[in-house]
Design a protein that fits this description.
Layout lengths: L24 H4 L2 H24 L3 E6 L14 E6 L3 H4 L5 H6 L4 E2 L14 E2 L16 H12 L7
Antiparallel strand pairs: 1-2, 3-4
């Protein structure tokens, strides 16, 4: 009969030793784990970039009071509000630089207080400073004479 060697007391060969260290974190990571971590970080950065862009507001010109047609565009009749607009709409309203460049232009039609001032609502003044542009109503007979006179060929005077 074969003789079995006695086991040393206090050590169980099936159980791990309690003093052994757990596996390191890097030995547990696979290539798939690393790819997923990198993809998550890229997704987070793109989300932050989109959210920052979504909250971008621009200063635009707003009527500080009701503007009648012909009212000169000056800093006293305009205030600026920060609004969030699409780029296509942002091009249709006046920015602070546009108001400075168009100083002296006039309102083409009534603009209510608080309304965004669009580029179409402003036109250049009809006459230079210190002068006034006027229109004079004429009767139909005068207009008919003027239109027929301009359509006749000129004849030589002797």
């Amino acid at each position: 009969m074969a003789e079995v060697a006695p086991r040393p007391t206090g050590i169980d060969p099936v159980r791990r030793r309690s003093s052994s260290l757990p596996r390191s974190l890097l030995s547990r990571l696979s290539t798939g784990h690393l790819v997923m971590i990198v993809a998550g970080l890229i997704g987070m950065l793109l989300t932050v970039a989109v959210l920052r862009r979504a909250d971008e507001r621009q200063a635009v010109a707003v009527a500080a009071r009701d503007l009648a047609p012909g009212t000169a565009l000056t800093d006293s009749v305009v205030r600026y509000e920060d609004v969030k607009l699409d780029d296509s709409l942002l091009g249709t309203v006046l920015a602070p630089d546009d108001v400075k460049r168009l100083d002296g232009s006039v309102a083409a039609y009534p603009i209510a207080e608080g309304e965004l001032i669009s580029r179409r609502a402003i036109r250049p003044a009809a006459a230079p400073a210190g002068k006034r542009a006027m229109s004079i109503p004429t009767s139909r007979s005068i207009r008919r004479v003027l239109s027929t006179a301009s359509s006749r060929p000129a004849t030589g005077l002797t």
